[in-house]
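Input/output pair, single chain:
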Amino acid sequence: MSKLSFSTLGCSGLPLAEVAAMAARTGWPGLELRSAPDEPVHRGLSPEGRRAARSALAGATVLCVASYVKVAAAGVEDDEVVTALLAEAELARDLGAGAVRVFPGGLREGDDDARAVRRLRAAARGLPRGVEIWLETHDSHPRGRDVARVLSEVGSPEVRAIWDVAHPWMAGETVAGTAAALAPWLAHVQVKDRASAEDPTPVPLGDGMLPLRPVLIALRDAGYGGWLSLEWEHKWHPAPTPLEDALRAGRAWLAAVTGPEQDHQPGRF
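Output:
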């Protein structure tokens, strides 16, 4: 079974020590930390607050800070976007994370790619050592080929991709197509399941309509050695199943599908 992590989107506002304890109890030791004013971590956190947060998270692996920076956003100056992105990257560094998640956030128009490329290139030049930028398949760039189009122009090894399994498939891209498009840049994979195409309510892995088995097969065949991260979108779409129950059920489902836990070597589930 692959390395397992989860996003704090599913437990918004929960104290970090309780998040770390849940990670240990459920066997999902990696964390994506949502960075927002209503969360325990955000880019306005003081140096003392950052040290306290890192201490509270001891024992967990902080993979990325999940920011809401939109690199293709229109109506905002490049410098403002780059400054915000680098502030999130500094937060990631201070919390021991190796990356900051960003969204495209464009208008689905011709200038989106150019704005994203300019800003990602500029931010890549100022990144703290050891921190990457991960651009997620989302909103204006939902498909793997959309994100790949941007990353191929950015041309930086520090700017990579997150494959959120829902958005490419909902946009009509095949699993094989997404896997092939993102292969040169794939850093991280977010897994989830939903009740139906019309109903985004989160359901435990394997209980919904997303093509999770084909995704797992594609990742295995590609030799993917990174993390699978459960994004339980309870904050946006309240679910009757608590996050901890979803984590336990998801781990059991993944073990049944992929076999017993191995040694986390690339290409091994």
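Residues 3-258 form a domain with the TIM Barrel fold (CATH 3.20.20.150). DSSP finds nine helices and eight strands in the chain.
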